[in-house]
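Saturday, quiet lab. Running sequence design on the structure tokens for the scaffold JK sent over.
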């Protein structure tokens, strides 16, 4: 797949809330993730990250530095990635892949103490598993029971 032009990651800003609240997902996808409007009320230790195409948010995810991370990793410097979504009208353009490729450098810049990103992906969500594997996440062989069944715990080392 060719490199997508002008994709950047940016911390959530109120300027873009209206864009994010217009995100839509198919029912198939929504069963595995949350829409930005469902998770945009951040608590301490949660950070909203937008996948930007030029100045338009096309994707969104959360990074957590909360007690919840301990459910997925024993690493005190790990962060948890949740709620990755790409607005339905922007899917199949490589934005999720490019956003995840940019994740390592973004985390190094914004969260320099972090040396690992962990996530849980549903065993039935094969497209997401492939995405994460293709950008360097490895299956930790740990499993967790989620609301929609078994989840694979994956990790990306931040060098």
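Result came back. Writing it out in full:
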């Amino acid at each position: 797949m060719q490199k997508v032009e002008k994709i950047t990651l940016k911390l959530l800003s109120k300027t873009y809330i209206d864009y994010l609240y217009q995100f839509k997902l198919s029912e198939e996808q929504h069963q595995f993730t949350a829409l930005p409007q469902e998770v945009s009320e951040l608590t301490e230790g949660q950070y909203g990250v937008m996948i930007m195409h030029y100045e338009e948010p096309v994707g969104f995810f959360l990074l957590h530095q909360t007690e919840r991370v301990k459910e997925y990793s024993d690493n005190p410097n790990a962060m948890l990635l949740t709620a990755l979504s790409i607005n339905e009208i922007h899917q199949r353009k490589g934005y999720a892949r490019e956003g995840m490729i940019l994740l390592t450098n973004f985390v190094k810049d914004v969260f320099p103490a972090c040396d690992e990103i962990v996530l849980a992906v549903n065993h039935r969500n094969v497209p997401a598993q492939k995405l994460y594997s293709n950008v360097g996440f490895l299956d930790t062989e740990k499993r967790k029971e989620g609301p929609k069944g078994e989840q694979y715990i994956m990790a990306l080392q931040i060098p």
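Notes for JK: The longest strand covers residues 56-64. The mean pLDDT is 93. Ask whether to fix the surface positions before the next round.
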